[in-house]
Amino acid sequence: MNRPRHIAIIMDGNGRWAQQRGWKRIKGHEKGAEVVRHITTYCANHPEIEVLTLYAFSTENWKRPKMEVEFLMKLLDNWLQKELPTYQKENVRFEVIGDISRFNKALQERIAYTKEMTKNNTKLTQVLALNYGGRDEIVRACRRACASGEEISEESFEKFMDSQLGDVDMLIRTGGEKRISNFLLWRIAYAELFFTDTLWPDFTPAELAELIEEFRSRHRRFGGI
Ligand code: IPE
Ligand code: IPE
Ligand code: MG
Description:
single chain, 225 residues, alpha/beta, six-stranded parallel β-sheet, 7 helices, binds 3-methylbut-3-enyl trihydrogen diphosphate
């Protein structure tokens, strides 16, 4: 039976969720952050899930209004500060992919501190994709690979990526859009894809459990018969 070792989620629909209620988009991001906690706790307590990768900010999201970008950065900083006890309690290791060199120094330090404090946790690795683009990660990995002078194979390439997470088993996108939006291009080669109309702030562990059930019944062939 299929095992959901690595689940990746494009957490989309925060803005629409807030706008439907006549609220500012940022309210949706606040609610979305709470959902991150619930989903992470569910995954940490699931015996088969080892990695949960969450798309939080793409290399294209800088195109948004300055105020929204600044709010997201502040939200992330506050979130990491507030959630550290949850990471410890749930035994979750915090990891990041993406190029965070464009973030302010204080936020970069907060990220490094959270990684350091949680590095020995073992139940789940929660990966936030921050200033992340699938193409950007591949290009940066190629630069590292060239600099190393090593012979490159499909197997060895991963070690030049931002983090060694292995292939994605389930890729889920909330919010109704059916596209990849430059997420994890290398690692989703054989991922099973799931698209739900549920907006991210309304997504629940119960819906994730249903998707995992559907995943189990799928026939993964990996090119075989
Ligand atoms: C996803 O929700 C969260 C981020 C990209 C940070 P959106 O903000 O894209 O919400 P919609 O798609 O506009 O509803
Ligand atoms: C993808 O959502 C990025 C994140 C969820 C962080 P977007 O809302 O930015 O994607 P598009 O613009 O609809 O493709
Ligand atoms: Mg969106």
